[in-house]
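Hi Y.,

Following your request, here is the sequence exactly as I used it, all 142 residues.
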Amino acid sequence: MLEAKDIMNRKVVCIKKNIPVIDAIRLMAEKNITGVPVVEDDMTLIGIISEQDVLRLFHTYDDEKDRMVNDFMTQPAVHFEEKEPLLDVCYCLRDNSIRRVPITLNRKVVGVISRSDILKCILQLWDQDTVPSIAVSNNVEP
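Below is the corresponding structure, written out as tokens. Let me know if you'd prefer a different format.
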């Protein structure tokens, strides 16, 4: 059975809670990611900040532009330990409005799994099977 550690991305972009929220938004935009784990200096997970968490800034910018990541982050963050079944991660991403989850080892961030990582895994598993060829006929009517 596949575990979270088997497909997690080990190159995780993280942020600290005392960073200005605009820097978190800038980081997400530059890296083209939908969320960032919020960690302590020792990589202990304390929350997550996502696009959804900061959307309100569109109409509250003047009042909140100087606030920090910890004012917006979701805590506790949904996360999975690296040895948890990948199927559990898949169900979580499928059933919630979550696009990525941190993977931890003893509460310290060691990876992240996104929906696109799950899709790549599905393709890899699919390609390992023998898939019958699809015959295409030029005589098929629409």
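Residues 130-142 have pLDDT under 50 and may be disordered.

Thanks again,
Q.
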